[in-house]
Amino acid sequence: MKDLTAVKDFSYSGEKIFAAAKDFLPINGTDYVELYVGNAKQSAHYYKTAFGFQSLAYAGLETGMRDKTSYVLVQNKIRLVLTTSFDPDSEISNHVRKHGDGVKFISLWVDDARKAYEETIKRGAKSYLEPVEELDKDGYIVKAGIHTYGETIHLFIERKNYNGVFMPGYVKWESEYNPTDIGFKYVDHMVGNVELGNMNKWAKFYEEVMGFANLVTFDDKDISTEYTALMSKVMTNGNGRIKFPINEPAKGLKKSQIEEYLDFYRGAGCQHIAIATNDIVHSIAEMRKRGVEFLHVPGTYYDTVADRVGIIDEDLKILKRLGIMVDRDEEGYLLQIFTKPVEDRPTLFFEIIQRKGAKSFGKGNFQALFESIEEEQRKRGTL
Ligand code: FE2
Fold first, then answer.
1. Which domains does the chain have, with CATH numbers?
2. What distance in angstroms lies between residue 47's CA and the mean position of ligand 1's atoms?
3. Is the pLDDT of residue 18 over 60?
4. DSSP string, 177-236
């Protein structure tokens, strides 16, 4: 098979980055994100109520699924699957026992799942699931899977011959409880936390096995406070639709947020899911009203933000009230905010981001963000 090199001209914070991504693994986008959780019914209620997800599909006892139940939620291009097992010895239950609620599958939408599997296995991926066809009256899908960091899996989902609601085995989920959508559009990026010394290993995995390119690297000079630090490499596929930053802890005086995550998650895993919106003021006002907790941004942040980012369309007073941060790069600016962890362990959280030209990740906010996370770590006694 011929490898064509797609040279992408990404610019990033004033630097031109030529990302040499290979296209042996064409990806259309994120297909779905599946979390293994302790109580899928209650999690689904939370993500509907607080995040504005809509009921899409369901599989469980009533549909002939004897060992687990899954709720599929949707908001524009984002599909979130929440799964709980009935069997205490299953892979799912073991995952929940060890990690708590967390991301199991970061599923990628491809046109040819068999080829995606072959190409990545050939380059050294560890197999999770050999290509398999699943069929029902609405057609068939092909899925296959490979391991990534920790116990996280990339599934390749081919659905061009399927017209059903989600996948074979699922029925449409009709619910009388339908809180309104809050404007989430698509998954912007998903971040993995890996153990000290493993960032380069996983960056290399995305480069060599998946054909991704390194879009940008942050070291401890970019992301550190007096106490803690981290390093990060952002990996992207050829069309830029999939972006996976990989973090590892860096040396600081105290325990970094990455080490805290690794301790509580009991290993590497997905740290945050960044979701894009076209109206962050609306999305965050809704989320706050619906009870979502966000990291606290110090009021003084807003005293200097205008000097840093210049003129923006939004009213700074409103951004301050909602705790939304702003950053600018060469191509425009972005607005972003981070939730507190969405489960009891300080592990998975969400970022909500609105891009107004900027393609970067909010480097100018790292300092304020880090200090805010440390404030939370201090309360938890884990700093
Ligand atoms: Fe992020």
1. 14-20+182-380 (3.10.180.10), 29-172 (3.10.180.10)
2. 19
3. no
4. --PPP--EEEEEEEEEE--TT-HHHHHHIIIIIT--EEEEEE-TTTSB-SS-EEEEEEEE
